[in-house]
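Homework help board

Subject: predicted structure for assignment chain

Our instructor gave us this sequence and asked us to write out the predicted structure in token form, then describe one feature. I got the tokens but I'm not sure how to describe them. Can anyone check?
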Amino acid sequence: MIAEIAKYLGAIETSEEGERKSPPGVCVVEAGTGTGKTLAYSISVLPLALAENRKVVISTATTALQEQVLSKDLPELARHSGLSFSYALAKGRGRYICLSKLDHHLEALNTDQNTLPMFLMEQREDALNEEELQLFLSRYASGEWDGDRDSWPSAIPQEIWRGLATDNQQCANRRCSYFNTCPYYEARKQWDEADVIVANHDLVLSDLALGGGVILPSPESSIYVFDEAHHLADKALGHFTVSGGLKAVQNWLKTLTKSMAEFAPYLGPSNYLARHIDEIAGLATSIHSLTESLFASLEQGIAWLQEDNSSDRRYRFSGGRLPEELVKQAIELKMMFASLVRILDDLRSEVSAAVDEKSDCGLSREEGEQWFPVMGSLCNRAENYYQLWIFYAKDRSKESIPDACWLVYRDQESQSDIVLFGSPLNAGKVLYQSLWKRAYAAVLTSATLTALGRFDRLAYKSGLPEASIYHCVVSPFDFGNVAELVIPRMSSLPSDAEAHTTEICERFDEIIGSHKAVLVLFSSRRQMNDVFYGLARDTREQVMTQDDMGKQELVATHREMIDAGKRSILFGLASMAEGIDLPGKYLTHVVIAKIPFSVPNDPLEESISEWLEQQGRNPFMEVSVPDASLRLIQACGRLIRTEEDRGVVTILDQRLVSRRYGQLLLDALPPFKRSIGV
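My token output:
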């Protein structure tokens, strides 16, 4: 792996200014469990990066791997490699407390509410109390706490944190009175100076969405390493998905008009900005009227489908084709939101100028600081809705690949809503333009990058350049002697969910055998709970499900049970098929209820399948089977984590034996000893 990455980096041609001249290309290395991926990419990338004064950005998908890289892998490399380098963790600004907001909340608790912006009054209704706020402030001021949500000694509930954190739009940056003591910018100093920055996929994608080089170093000067790279394309697709509820828009409009009514007195009589507030009021009325009309027409005119195990109903527009009337209304809403975004941006600029004491809008510096996050938040929401209507209003007649567009009708007691969703079918084009085409170098690695032994699926989903190179490094573990794959003869198939669940319950003790440390993975929460309640009481007392507690707490409790000599059986879903580490005695048997195919009614998956069928292609073999193969390998990968591990993987799905694709899935798994049909 070191050799492949070093050859890739050494072959890059650069100009005299150090810019990449070679065509875009990525180094893709699938490296099995136990390879030592972090050591391999670090020791091959760092010498060149240090010699050429380039930044290394290591991006992971999970916090567990992030912590391992920071607390174990990089420190060990620094001690033993002879390389001198610094490293730091990069997180989004939303992970750090905003001192300005904290101060405003403390002021709000001790001030007549009529003197403060409405958004502070609304957030006062959350679980914020003076004692907690003072504790945050005192621990930060004393240096006991760095302002990072993750380093607070106990979990901070989201409803509290939401009122204490900020985002890019709300942050006044250098204009803020607290800039010199800001926790986020204190952390930024560390990673701005570091040779190696450890981030996550979401932060890298957020930086690229802002143009690149805003939060992290510029792509042109960076060597990226994407660990757990099989998640990158899906993460990117999530960043490009737009959504918004029609009633949610109306509720937000009420907040907007109230905020503007409260803002107006700060401007003074006959202020030149007053006309902006009048314009906003007029636009809000028009948008409310149009969304109300749209809600009524969609509610009555759509053939809604009931979603399984949910009160929600859904409708997907086949081929991404929207009714003419909906497009027409989307165009109108796009134009209205374009005006709204422009006006709010003007107001935010004036408030920003007031913070700099360069405005004649009538606000003092203190009032400007108070209102800046309000304007930022309003701009952010307006921009999000604007992007939704741009997506729904665009002309799709000349596009070769359709978009996915769907609606969800959420029938709730307080207020029903129709939420519009939109997504491209593939993130590859955007990743190519914003990342691969610009990056000096990029390495993608994971234990699972190939699907059915090929890189085609990854290359397509991620938009990898033609000049990319691909390599597989086999795991050093002796799978044939340390692990066994068992596929018992089952009388039911997962397609008959009730019969399959009943059979698992009836044969559970036989399937588990004498193993004390067991992980049972399900593809659906319903089956997980049905199996749990279908077990005998004595067996149920040995089982903990993912619904009982958080994943970290679940794993910790499981370890305690095993250490105490007791049996512990974990029931988990997809998120536990990856990223949990239970070596040795803590896990000796992994049971997989069925092949982890995608949810058949996912609107995005349906849209992709529909488009492939229109091309005369087979979506099941091109998408469903390869994706299931990746998930199956990940699930099996929970068992053997170190050279000392031993155990069994049992898969309760007869389709691995009875269907043609079953052999393809089996061939892609590690070379376990096999017992089939027992």
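Reply (TA_rk): Your tokens look well-formed. For the description, you could write something like this. The CA atoms of residues 10 and 48 lie 9 Å apart. That's the kind of observation they're looking for.
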